[in-house]
Design brief:
The relative contact order is 0.32. It is built from no helices and eleven strands. The strands form two sheets. Strands 2, 4, 5, 6, 9, 10 and 11 form a seven-stranded mixed β-sheet that branches. A four-stranded antiparallel β-sheet has the order 1-3-8-7, with no helix packed on it. By secondary structure, the protein is an all-beta fold.
Length: 126
Amino acid sequence: QVQLVESGGGLVQAGGSLRLSCAASGLAQSILNAGWFRQAPGKEREFVAAVRLSDGDTLYANSVKGRFTISRDSAKDTVYLQMNSLKPEDTAVYFCAGNSDTYYYIPRIGPLYDYWGQGTQVTVSS
């Protein structure tokens, strides 16, 4: 079993930055891809970014491309989401997720992820 714990959320003004962390424990080595998703009030959960842990290849949603950067530290079993130039529309609960069985591409669909963190709130004020 894998446990994922997010941290780093908070309140920031528009144009500011935050860095989210996702620490994995348990059978962390079983994770092939790690992703970030977010869910705003009244909206469906949406894909933000993902990284393939073996080679660091990344995938981003168009809405965050150029502003957000996903990275991993294999030694610490931790994935990060650096968020710059934040906008009020980035306000949401951000979830870390782990995929353990998709080898040939980086998944961007939530149901393909097996493990989920509890979420961390990010609020961007205008």
